[in-house]
């Protein structure tokens, strides 16, 4: 994640830091980082699945494949997220 | 990727308990997210052939199993390492088993 925190910590020059604002900004930055990570991995996987020998442009079948792949990757991500969450809850219940 | 590091706000957390709690919660959430990213990537390789119009039930079941087995593997490794640690410490030549 590049850049890390923005330079404005909700202080706006008054010298006092507003924790609420900081938390909101941090949450946004985290969400952005997660989206970037997702996109990076999705791009990698879908490139591998859909592009054979790279041609002069993306043809129609490649584009269709990429579109489907994106949706399937999201499905997979959600399935994994749910399964992991269930497992964690099960583990916690067994403690 | 350098996942969100809490070290830059830890100074603030030291004075404000609300921030401290926030950092703990977000760190935990991030750890979860990172694992989901990692497992999705790994399980995609194992469970996905050609991307179709939807995720069929076989592939879905594979993903679920994959997650469970990944966690099992992680726990197995920790447990066995703990056991072998008792007889022989980690940083010895005999680690390669």
Automatic annotation (TrEMBL), chain A:
Keywords: Chaperone, Disulfide bond, Membrane, Metal-binding, Mitochondrion, Mitochondrion inner membrane, Protein transport, Translocation, Transport, Zinc. GO terms for molecular function: metal ion binding. Residues 25-85 form the Tim10-like domain. The twin CX3C motif contains 4 conserved Cys residues that form 2 disulfide bonds in the mitochondrial intermembrane space. GO terms for biological process: protein insertion into mitochondrial inner membrane; protein transport. The keyword DNA repair does not apply. One of its GO terms (cellular component) is mitochondrial intermembrane space chaperone complex. It is a peripheral membrane protein. Coiled coil: none annotated. The gene is TIMM13. The lineage of its organism: Eukaryota, Metazoa, Chordata, Craniata, Vertebrata. This is Mitochondrial import inner membrane translocase subunit.
Automatic annotation (TrEMBL), chain B:
Residues 22-83 form the Tim10-like domain. It is found in: Mitochondrion inner membrane. InterPro entries: Tim10-like, Tim10-like_dom_sf. Pfam families: zf-Tim10_DDP. It is a peripheral membrane protein. Its main location: mitochondrion. It comes from the Eukaryota. SUPFAM superfamilies: Tim10-like. GO terms for molecular function: metal ion binding. GO terms for biological process: establishment of protein localization to mitochondrion; protein transport. Keywords: Chaperone, Disulfide bond, Membrane, Metal-binding, Mitochondrion, Mitochondrion inner membrane, Protein transport, Translocation, Transport, Zinc. One of its GO terms (cellular component) is mitochondrial inner membrane. Mitochondrial intermembrane chaperone that participates in the import and insertion of some multi-pass transmembrane proteins into the mitochondrial inner membrane. Also required for the transfer of beta-barrel precursors from the TOM complex to the sorting and assembly machinery (SAM complex) of the outer membrane. Acts as a chaperone-like protein that protects the hydrophobic precursors from aggregation and guide them through the mitochondrial intermembrane space. The twin CX3C motif contains 4 conserved Cys residues that form 2 disulfide bonds in the mitochondrial intermembrane space. Heterohexamer. Belongs to the small Tim family. This is Mitochondrial import inner membrane translocase subunit. It comes from Callithrix jacchus. The gene is TIMM8A.
